[in-house]
Amino acid sequence: MGQLSLKSVIKTFGEFEVVKGVSLDVHEGEFVVFVGPSGCGKSTLLRMIAGLEHTTDGDIVIDGKRVNDLPPVKRGIAMVFQSYALYPHMTVFENIAFPLRVEKAPADVIKKKVEAAAAILHLDTRLQQKPGQLSGGQRQRVAIGRAIVREPEIFLFDEPLSNLDAALRADMRIELTRLHKQLGATMIYVTHDQIEAMTMADRIVVLNGGHIAQVGAPLELYHKPQNTFVAGFIGNPR
Ligand code: ADP
Ligand code: MG
């Protein structure tokens, strides 16, 4: 579970084509990183996968099923954004529990799932605190906890660490890699940080102007960039 295929996916806003026919197969349990310059369509692609944006053309297929017409909650996907809007008046527990409350899950199930997510994210001792009492890194963990409790097959991350300082980003890279191994879920991760891409990805997808410029393992792109654009982004500068 958690296999994703994009088939010639196109997105236009008015006259402006921002995703220009992207095809990609993401394997079950794979960690795929999307990189590319600002405005190249990374967030739009994620939002279409999540169901937050309609495709103009092409298919999105999850575990063999076309999901273009399914609403976000039916896709088995959770998305974590850069600006993680936590509820300031709620405790960490209640913030993480929120999606389960919306689903009207029973209280004992909620308690079990929230505590399990908190343990994975080292938030066990913080459950009764409010977001204002937490560091930026801890707040981002709460946002990830809120995704984990839904037990999605696929996680989408849109530049989740870009508001954190360099030291915290380095810690969170390690945390997220550990989380990926532990959960075994498929993860698609958008970043403009080359180090994140090189250290976290099974495969990197380099996007340029709504097209895929190259797909490959980090070292493959680094040593054998197919063009100067990829070389400039990821490749070994020679
Ligand atoms: P990235 O995440 O790679 O920086 P985006 O996917 O956010 O890029 O945006 C790709 C292009 O689509 C940009 O030119 C952006 O201005 C445009 N765009 C994104 N969302 C909308 C929208 N809702 N309406 C019109 N244009 C949009
Ligand atoms: Mg973006």
UniProtKB/TrEMBL annotation:
Keywords: ATP-binding, Cell inner membrane, Cell membrane, Membrane, Nucleotide-binding, Transport. Residues 4-234 form the ABC transporter domain. One of its GO terms (cellular component) is ATP-binding cassette (ABC) transporter complex, substrate-binding subunit-containing. It comes from the Bacteria. One of its GO terms (molecular function) is ATP binding. Belongs to the ABC transporter superfamily. This is Sugar ABC transporter ATP-binding protein. The lineage of its organism: Bacteria, Pseudomonadati, Pseudomonadota, Alphaproteobacteria, Rhodobacterales.
